[in-house]
Amino acid sequence: MRHLRVPSAETQHWLELCRTQNWLQKGAGVLSLEDGLKGIPLSETAPPESDKSWLGNTIILAAGITKGPEHWSEHLDQKLLQEIGEELPNSYEIQGDILIVKLEEQTREYGTAIAEAMLKQLPSIRLVCADNGVIGEFRVRDLEPLTSRNNDLSTITQIRENGVMISTDPAKVYFSARLSKEREDNLLVAQKLRKQLSRPLRICDPYAGVGPSLATLLREEGLVSECYAGDLNPDAFELLKGNIEHFISKSPTPPKQLKIKNIDARKWKDELDNEHKIDYLLVNLPHHSLEHLPKLLPLLSTDNSTVIRGWAIIDRDSLTLQEGNIASMIKLAGGNVESISCSEVKGFSSSKIFMRFESWQTFS
Ligand SMILES: C[S@@+](CC[C@H](N)C(=O)[O-])C[C@H]1O[C@@H](n2cnc3c(N)ncnc32)[C@H](O)[C@@H]1O
Description:
By secondary structure, the chain is an alpha/beta fold. It folds into three domains: 2-66, 2-Layer Sandwich (Alpha-Beta Plaits); 72-155, CATH 3.30.300.110; 178-363, Rossmann fold, CATH 3.40.50.150. It is built from nine helices and 19 strands. A seven-stranded mixed sheet has the order 15-14-13-16-17-19-18, sandwiched between helices. The chain has a four-stranded antiparallel sheet with strand order 3-4-1-5, covered by helices on one side. Strands 7-8-9-10 form a four-stranded mixed sheet. The radius of gyration is 28 Å and the shape is elongated.
């Protein structure tokens, strides 16, 4: 590779000049030469040694130090990069082998070039999709496939979380990898309840999605005796069934009773013949959890302490009121609250937050 020999003190000047002229070889590093000189790696478009631009500095041939581009945008053509300017996407999300990126209106026309640059940089990615926002009753993302490594445009993918593979389809169902810490904590709380009850638990996850919470709970030896799970989104339900089968196949103690349904969460009460038998209930419909909660309370066991863990989007200012609010709902349903806590998990917007609530109670 050709290198321009320059005094060490002038390295920055020549790097800058070569970069602006598109004469710098991408992905190659500066060489340290004899006598304190440096070698600037030149691209094929850089002029020959006789060119006046070099001010008499010589060009040598030397094996280059090549390092791969550090950022996907380095695979974009300089001209394109300048046209995109400030609107270059600065973040993206990865689910399995799918990369999901939000593009500003002005950047959409460069979508395919951006996606191809991303594929070059990230070998584990198969498909790049533009995220055009949330749509429909089930708040799933409107994904537009931009480019694929092997012409496979399927949006079904596998995610590994806490050592378990979970199948999902980001174009049809909700899944948030960012909540995996919440799911780990679900397990800790379930273990505490099992210890207190001295027996495996009857659990219900009525807004299960593709089942990430169940992945953690069902794998734990002797934790779950009965499992009731569902989702109203038919696509989530289909994936949930397959995933639960897979989780159970890895469990040394599969639940004795298992029901998976494509129903509205508020119908579980009838589905379980009003038996009041659930020990551990997950309530994960953040935009409506608090509104649905009274309809779910009759699921809880009347024989022992029970636990609810739920997530809700609330007004930031109302956080301090939520413990009282949820406790009132439980009391109204005939419950006796043993402990309750509401805490912010993350911000949601300038005025709203994403809150977790956890309550322990008995019903008579
Ligand atoms: C926020 S997601 C949670 C999914 C899953 N628990 C997770 O952590 O990935 C809420 C789920 O509830 C489902 N859903 C929406 N309305 C529902 C309802 N009325 N009854 C049951 N499921 C519902 C949605 O399809 C979605 O999968």
